[in-house]
Design a protein that fits this description.
The complex is a heterotrimer.
Chain A lengths: L1 H11 L12 H29 L24 H7 L2 H34 L7 H10 L6 H13 L6 H26 L2 H9 L3 H30 L3 H6 L7 H6 L2 E2 L2 E2 L1 H21 L1 H8 L7
Antiparallel strand pairs in A: 1-2
Helix pairs in contact in A: 2-12, 4-7, 4-9, 5-7, 7-9, 8-9, 9-13
Chain B lengths: L6 H29 E15 L17 E15 L3 H8 L1 H32 L6 H9 L6 H12 L17 H29 L3 H9 L4 H12 L1 H15 L4 H6 L11 H10 L4 H30 L1
Antiparallel strand pairs in B: 1-2
Chain C lengths: L1 H20 L2 E5 L4 E6 L7 E5 H4 L14 E7 L8 H15 L2 E7 L1 H13 L7 E4 L4 H4 L9 H5 L13 H4 L3 E2 L2 E2 L1 E2 L7 E5 H4 L2 H11 L10 H11 L13 E4 L9 H12 L27 H14 L11 H9 L3 E6 L1 H7 L11 E4 L6 E4 L4 E4 L6 E2 L7 E4 L6 H10 L3 H9 L22 H6 L4 H15 L3 E2 L8 H16 L5 H19 L1 H12 L4
Parallel strand pairs in C: 4-5, 4-6, 11-12, 16-18
Antiparallel strand pairs in C: 1-2, 2-3, 6-17, 7-8, 9-17, 10-12, 10-13, 14-15
């Protein structure tokens, strides 16, 4: 019992323990098997990508069976060596990292106070929920409508192919998420602590900075991580704005398609490389991710 | 309890101004493009001036002639012609638009419910005691972080019909128009079911134990438990996930772009893909803007329909 | 002490010699020749030219463009990939000669056109030159975005090259009307590749004759013959490389991925009425040159598309979703008897990491159709001696200078450097450069000036390269040619055609429906862009003689 509770705790963050059915080893076995099969099915494409990345180009489409290295084909590290060693890969990784981190941080800086305002204050002109929904509606915008205007603005400001341009754009995209999620986090915090601070003469900013913010920090950090992942995979604006200096990973990946078609062996390597930072983050911050993904609508 | 106080604006306004600045101008400009035909002509003249060194003396080539450099003068003349509703009227007559709407609608109506249902089922499964549950759940998170563009290309190798890993099924995944759309749906389901799964799992784990104990004691069957207890309690979560997936699914672009190129024919050309092609390949920006606006209006209507439900969660 | 010095000196000398041997850069020889050394990344290749050929601006210690920084866009393929590879290879050489700095901006193939248009339309001027596809001229030249190179070509200051080496069909692609914009680089066209070992097999020849009643042609001279042969081989396991049944013909039909070129090349001999001039009825393919009415749904075109549908059945059904890589891979693995595509296939045949068919990969000009449509009479004509129609389908990627460039001279010096004869030869012989032979000196004697040994040294099989270069020679110098579409909006016209073709190939539409729909949509595009200006540009683009 203690062990299963431990698993549940680790898995769900500060959540109450999992639903406990009557211990039943047959049920346990069946469900476990099912879960393993499901996980393997979801893992298969990634495994296949790994297998493709280890193959000579001629083997890309001819490998039989499950594509197990050494069993079904002769693996080679050439593709990996080729891609990792190029300056372009390293620059794309560096750019993506810088842009994604800065964009999420910027969005957090702008969005957290706004979230606090929407959680705590009354805006007479417009109900808070409407303002919140307005923020959310920015997320449904089809990007193609805004690419050209953005391009023109950046060009006018002389900021084409700069990191700053992409940071600003990505921050704009993820800002709504920040506002909506963090607002819910603040709503969950008990008011008494802040009110006490106000009574003590701390002022609204003081009670925000010293009371609310630290308490909400885990969720805020989680939100930042998710925004990082979204900014990481952004393609359309990156390709419009960047040309050399600010090339990000998705753009670099699209370069795996040349006039002769998709070079799957390189694409597979690039896809794997691209996944490393977000996956690392996911692993390190699992419990926070869950909290963040629930948009605060669920107290996970 | 809500406070008032002037400082509230200091908290809120930076974000609001930011959003206004960065989205209002692009939206306004897009609308302008949709109603006007913009022609830009740039005239170039060049001036040759000698290259001077630090002392201000002209630098000479070995032949004795001075080196010159160019100063480029660009004169941009933009004319805009009001075309009224021309771009919007075109939408009704364009066969590609009709097909794109159909493709996107089918995609959304099949993929999103599949992702939600599958996500819920998996969440229920993973809510049980399982071997290595934490590790398995970590594996389930991975698809969310894969770059959609790369996922599209990689699934091409998986769907390869002449001997790929699924070739034994003999299904024309990418060469038959209907199957191609289904393949696109499959890829999206692969990538986003884990998202639904994670959210629902967290929600399930947030439900108090006592609830289930009580229901059990009352003799409720598993099905009853599911439909009468779990689903109603999870309704806000389900709605939010539905709304989020809907909004993203309507913007379907990366996967058909990489996997099928919109084909065969235009069988998988989604609305957003078509708008992209029209705007950034044909450079018919007015038409693309009109297309984007129509989508925006449709989505806003959908959001408004959900408004009432959202109020309960966010009120 | 002396002993030490001697050893050191000796070691230093050795080091110098060794360094010199694998050096990268330019070596000015006393006899007036100049060695361009590409360095160890490119197998220490050395290309020899002369001072005259390099032009008077370049010389030892001359840095005529010192301080200039230029950017050239190219389809992304990396330092050893097609079209971008040569830029990487020659960058150090140009930088040494000019004193300038070159930025190679590699762009994903699909996005290259978009980024170029963004740059040109908004007058941004971020790039000095673009390695364009020939079909982009309609959006570049009439609007004045290109920098004409006639003045620069006329002087002897820059590396010397000439349009004379180009066959007329390619030459016109580098001009707009009379004005030259493009610098010589790649030459694209589709030819037929076939497995000569399979076609020469006596058992198959016998069985074919029994079944079809005539000797198996190797290679087929008409499309109709080719269809018979493809049908004969389809479904049999004639290839020893695997145990699975093989196909007749493989095509790369994926929409948005250059699949429409198959139709263009094939239908040329069905739909073009040969003649002496380019007038209303003869030598036209796309539009009627008097009123811009689309010809794409003429009976000749429809018949060709129906034919292509039949041909499709002799290949794997999955090819509807295949782009170049997959289709070529299928052929290179030995699974199809025929493929018709670009010069890259010939080069890839020689690469043993990609191909299992080196040495049996032969090429010929595309077959002709046994009948063609006469636009004037409205009837089909049975040709007594079917003549193949040459094509220049594809990009023929080459450099065009942006009119917004602040350094057109420096940029031209780079492009011209890569166009001089010895460099161009080297490009053509080394298949990975993506530069395919099309110029007189690249063809084998007696057609041109190259020898088999040159190609064999670069890794080609002797027999393969003979048929390969002959095929391209025949193709580029054919009497009747498929005119290339280069008017504003070509991208859109071709995209509509591509999508409708794909619908026809996947069975969603009939051939006639697909082409009629194409014509209807083309009319809308023409009206929207402006019928009169399109007509004018079209006439200029095809060399209409009224």
């Amino acid at each position: 019992m203690a062990r299963s509770v431990g698993i549940a705790r680790a898995g769900a963050g500060a959540a109450p323990p999992a639903v406990r059915w009557r211990p039943d080893s047959l049920r346990y076995a069946i469900f476990s098997l099912l879960a393993i099969v499901v996980a393997m099915i979801f893992l298969f494409p990634l495994y296949w990508a790994l297998s493709t990345s280890l193959r000579n180009p001629i083997d890309t489409f001819t490998v039989a069976g499950l594509g197990i290295p050494w069993v079904d084909f002769e693996p080679t590290l050439d593709n990996w060596i080729d891609q990792i060693s190029t300056a372009e890969s390293r620059r794309a990784m560096a750019n993506s990292t810088i842009i994604a981190i800065c964009a999420s941080v910027l969005a957090l800086i702008l969005g957290t106070p706004a979230a606090y305002a929407l959680a705590r204050f009354n805006f007479k002109r417009m109900p808070n929920r409407d303002i919140t929904v307005w923020f959310l509606s920015q997320r449904v915008l089809p990007p193609v409508a805004t690419v050209i205007p953005f391009y023109l603005v950046m060009r006018a400001l002389g900021m084409l192919d700069t990191h700053i341009a992409l940071i600003l754009i990505n921050a704009t995209f993820v800002l709504p998420f920040v506002v909506v999620i963090v607002r819910q986090t603040f709503l969950d915090l008990p008011l008494e602590l802040e009110e006490a601070a106000l009574v003590d003469g701390a002022g609204h900013f003081g009670s925000f900075w010293r009371i609310a913010l630290p308490l909400a920090m885990p969720a805020i950090a989680a939100t930042g991580l998710i925004m990082f992942a979204f900014a990481w995979n952004e393609f359309l604006f990156a390709i419009a704005i960047s040309s050399k200096e600010a090339i990000t990973i998705p753009v670099h990946m699209a370069g795996g398609v040349d006039s002769r078609g998709v070079q799957f062996w390189f694409m597979a390597v690039r896809a794997m490389i691209a996944m490393i930072p977000p996956v690392l983050i996911a692993l390190l911050a699992q419990r926070f991710i869950v909290r963040g993904l629930t948009l605060g609508a669920v107290k996970g | 309890m809500r406070w008032t106080g002037r400082v509230r604006f200091a908290f809120l306004l930076p974000a609001v101004i930011w959003v206004l600045a960065f989205t209002v101008f692009p939206l306004g400009y897009s609308l302008y493009l949709a109603f006007f035909k913009i022609e830009s002509k740039v005239e170039v003249t060049r001036e040759k001036v000698p290259v001077l060194d630090e002392q201000g003396e002209p630098v000479l080539l070995s032949s004795g002639k001075p080196r010159t450099r160019n100063i480029v003068h660009k004169n941009q003349v933009t004319t805009s012609e009001f075309v009224g509703l021309f771009n919007f009227e075109r939408l009704f007559e364009d066969p590609q638009v009709a097909t794109a709407i159909r493709v996107t609608a089918i995609f959304v109506l099949v993929a999103v419910p599949m992702e939600l249902a599958l996500g819920m089922l998996l969440a229920l499964l993973f809510n049980q005691q399982l071997l290595a549950r934490s590790a398995l759940r970590t594996i389930m998170i991975l698809p969310i972080f894969a770059t959609p563009l790369a996922v599209g290309y990689l699934f091409f190798t998986i769907f390869y019909e002449e001997g790929g890993p699924l070739g034994f099924l003999g299904i024309p995944f990418l060469s038959d128009p209907d199957w191609a759309l289904f393949s696109v749906i499959l890829v999206d389901v692969w990538q986003w079911t884990p998202f639904c799964f994670l959210v629902f799992l967290a929600a399930l784990q947030g439900l108090p134990d006592e609830l289930f104990e009580a229901a059990r004691i009352d003799g409720a069957s598993t099905l009853d438990l599911l439909t009468r207890v779990i689903l109603p309690l999870l309704q806000p979560t389900i709605l939010i996930v539905l709304l989020l997936r809907l909004a993203e699914a309507l913007k379907l672009f990366d996967v058909p772009f990489a996997l099928t190129g919109g084909g065969p024919g235009i069988a998988t050309q989604s609305y957003s893909f078509l708008a992209f092609r029209v705007g950034l390949r044909y450079f018919d920006l007015g038409y693309a803007s009109a297309m984007a606006y129509v989508l925006l209006i449709v989505v806003m209507i959908i959001v408004t329909l959900f408004f009432r439900r959202l109020r309960e969660t966010y009120g | 002490m002396g002993g030490w010095h001697g050893t050191l000196l000796g070691a230093a000398a050795l080091a110098l010699i060794a360094a010199d041997a694998s050096a990268q850069g330019v070596r000015w020889n006393d006899d007036g020749t100049v060695d361009l050394m590409l360095g160890p990344d490119y197998d220490d290749a050395v290309i020899t030219t002369t001072r005259e050929e390099l032009g008077t601006l370049f010389g030892p210690e001359e840095k005529p463009f010192e301080g200039a920084e230029i950017s050239v866009t190219v389809n992304s393929s990396g330092p050893k990939g097609g079209i971008s590879g040569p830029l990487h290879a020659f960058r150090p050489i140009w930088e040494e000669l000019s004193g300038g700095k070159l930025n190679i901006v590699e762009l994903p193939f699909g996005e290259h056109y978009t980024k170029m248009m963004l740059d040109l339309r908004n007058g941004t001027g971020q790039y000095d030159a673009f390695m364009v596809g020939a079909f982009w001229y309609g959006d570049i030249a009439p609007a004045g975005y290109g920098f004409p190179i006639d003045e620069l070509m006329a002087t002897d200051e820059y590396p010397q090259w000439t349009y004379d080496a180009m066959p007329p069909s390619l030459r016109v692609l580098h001009h707009w009307g009379e004005t030259p914009y493009g610098v010589l680089n790649d030459a694209d066209g589709q030819v037929l590749y076939y497995r000569k070992d399979v076609l020469a097999n006596p058992e198959h020849q016998q069985a074919f004759k029994t079944e079809y009643g005539y000797d198996m042609p190797a290679p087929p001279k008409t499309w109709q013959q080719l269809l018979d042969v493809a049908r004969y081989f389809n479904g049999k396991n004639w290839d020893a490389n695997d145990a699975e049944p093989d196909s007749g013909m493989v095509l790369h039909l994926k929409v948005g991925e250059q699949g429409h070129y198959h139709f263009q090349s094939l239908s040329a001999s069905f739909a073009i009425t040969p003649g002496d001039k380019v007038d209303q009825y003869h030598n036209v393919y796309w539009f009627d040159p008097t009123d811009m009415k689309p010809l794409i749904n003429s009976p000749g075109h429809v018949k060709a598309l129906e034919f292509l549908q039949e041909l499709h059945k002799t290949g794997p059904s999955a090819q509807v979703g295949w782009s170049l890589g997959e289709a070529w891979d299928y052929f290179l693995r030995g699974k199809a008897v025929f493929v018709f595509s670009w010069g890259d296939v010939g080069a890839l045949c020689q690469d043993e990491t990609r191909s299992k068919i080196k040495g049996v990969c032969a090429a010929s000009i595309l077959p002709a159709s046994a009948e063609y449509y006469d636009h004037e009479t409205g009837e089909f004509v049975q040709a007594e001696d079917p003549q193949p129609v040459g094509n220049t389908t594809g990009g023929s990627w080459h450099g065009v200078i942006s009119n917004f460039s602040a350094n057109p001279e420096a940029t031209y010096s780079l492009l011209a450097l890569m166009a001089i004869k010895p460099v161009s030869m080297w490009n053509a012989q080394n298949g990975w450069t993506g530069v395919d032979p099309g110029y007189s000196y690249q063809f084998l004697q007696p057609n041109g000036e190259a020898t088999v040994e040159d190609y064999v040294k670069a890794g080609w099989d002797a027999e393969d390269v003979k048929t390969y270069t002959q095929a391209y020679y025949d193709n580029f110098y054919a009497d009747t040619r498929l005119t290339y579409l280069r008017i504003p909006g070509t991208f859109e016209y071709w995209d509509i055609l591509d999508k409708n073709l794909s619908s026809a190939m996947s069975g969603e539409k009939s051939a006639k429906q697909a082409l009629d729909d194409t014509a209807a949509q083309w009319e809308q595009i023409t009206d929207r862009i402006g019928r009169d200006s399109q007509l004018q540009d079209y006439q200029a683009a095809i060399g209409y003689e009224g």
